[in-house]
Design a protein that fits this description.
The chain has 189 residues and is of the alpha/beta class. It has five helices and ten strands. The chain has a single domain (4-176), classed as Dihydrofolate Reductase, subunit A, CATH 3.40.430. A hairpin with a 5-residue loop joins strand 9 (164-171) and strand 10. Helix 1 (34-43) runs parallel beside helix 3. The chain is globular.
């Protein structure tokens, strides 16, 4: 069965955005190793799950003309994946499949299809929903060496504790720490 992987950049103090939505602290650098982390991840997935807001912001993003060739190739790879958008207000655009009801059943149906793993891109509300329904199989977090002090936290409104099993950690030259955890099966007592 395919895995749903939450792959996300986070600051050392647990924020995914600054107080005004800033993500300028999250930089991929081909010389620092962070770009190779991401390219390796992209080769192992063929599907991306987005919340509507994240999809509207990033699902069709095209880098500026002066962007490096390596970053343009990353965005080409991202846009080559199958895309699903979870939204209460679907708006078909021909580039993604919208899911607005029976989310858990639809997710499990997609997981059981043949293919590579699935990237849970976000946003925060979708991540929370997936966590609360036990739909995330792996947490792959790129922890950036910065403390913002305020912003949008990675985890909010989590209803139950989630047990994790450590897989590995890697560091890059720039100090980014890539940490992988698998979700432990729920045990009923």
């Amino acid at each position: 069965m395919r895995k749903i992987i939450l792959n996300l950049a986070v600051t050392l103090d647990g924020f995914i955005e600054g107080p005004n939505g800033e993500i300028d602290w999250c930089r991929m650098d081909e010389n620092s190793g962070t770009e190779s982390f991401f390219n390796q991840f992209l080769s192992g997935i063929d599907t991306i799950f987005y919340g509507r807001i994240s999809y509207d912001l990033w699902g069709q993003y095209q880098p500026a003309g002066d962007t490096s060739l390596s970053e343009k190739k990353i965005w080409e790879a991202v846009h080559s994946k199958n895309k699903y958008v979870f939204s209460r207000k679907p708006k078909e655009d021909g580039k993604a499949t919208y899911i607005s009801f029976d989310v858990v059943d639809k997710v499990n149906e997609i997981k059981n299809q043949p293919g590579k793993d699935i990237w849970l891109y976000g946003g925060a509300n979708l991540i929370t929903h997936f966590m609360n329904y036990g739909l995330i199989d792996n947490y792959l977090l790129a922890v950036f060496p910065i403390i913002l002090g305020a912003g949008k936290p990675l985890f909010t409104n989590i209803k139950n504790s989630i047990g994790l099993k450590f897989n590995y950690a890697e560091t890059s030259e720039s100090g980014v720490l890539l940490i992988s955890y698998d979700t432990l099966p729920l045990t009923v007592v």
